[in-house]
């Protein structure tokens, strides 16, 4: 009973503020304020407020929240201990990755450019224009980066 009275008072105050805002020709803001002001009355009329107050005032509900909190704390403690012991840590993951066969053949990182149409059509003594300016191994920097990261 007290909660419905408080919610009605809050809604009445909100609607009063909405009326003052509308008087100042700020209709969009007044509409938003009125929408927010009607929420407490709507919650009381649907019974949500009574349901929330019955949950909040029951000791068994609070005991349930305590058990859930204890469960979360125990889970976090077990994760911290697991990481400090090194169970399932980085070393084990690297050892497992090293033991499995490579998914890609080692020669697959080499560029497979082959002879293109321009190289096939050009005479043996001449190269295609622009080919003489390209470095011999233009993927060496990319390969170095991949090797650095273990790929």
List the helices and strands and how they pair.
Elements: H1 2-23, H2 27-46, H3 48-56, H4 59-85, H5 90-99, H6 117-121, H7 140-148
Description:
The model has no long low-confidence stretch (mean pLDDT 78). This protein has helices spanning 2-23, 27-46, 48-56, 59-85, 90-99, 117-121, 140-148. The chain has seven helices and no strands. The chain is elongated. The protein is mostly helical. Helices cover 68% and strands 0% of the residues. Helix 1 packs antiparallel against helix 2 (27-46). The two termini are 69 Å apart.
Structure characteristics:
151 residues
Short description:
By secondary structure, the chain is mainly α.
Poorly predicted segments:
none
DSSP strand content:
under 5%
What is the straight-line distance between the termini?
A: 69 Å
Outline type: elongated
Q: What is the H/E order?
A: HHHHHHH
Characterize the main sheet: none
Q: How many alpha or pi helices? A: 7
Round the mean pLDDT to the nearest integer and report it. Answer: 78
């Amino acid at each position: 009973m007290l909660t419905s009275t408080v919610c009605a008072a809050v809604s009445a105050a909100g609607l009063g503020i909405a009326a003052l805002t509308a008087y100042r020709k700020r209709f969009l803001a007044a509409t938003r304020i009125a929408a927010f002001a009607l929420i407490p009355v709507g919650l009381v009329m649907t019974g949500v407020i009574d349901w929330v107050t019955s949950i909040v005032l029951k000791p068994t509900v609070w005991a349930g929240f305590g058990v859930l909190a204890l469960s979360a704390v125990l889970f976090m403690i077990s994760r911290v201990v697991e990481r400090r012991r090194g169970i399932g840590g980085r070393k084990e993951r690297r050892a497992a990755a090293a033991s499995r066969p490579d998914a890609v053949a080692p020669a697959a990182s080499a560029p497979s450019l082959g002879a293109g149409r321009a190289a096939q059509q050009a005479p043996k003594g001449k190269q295609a224009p622009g080919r003489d300016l390209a470095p011999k191994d233009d993927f060496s920097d990319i390969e170095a980066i991949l090797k650095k990261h273990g790929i």
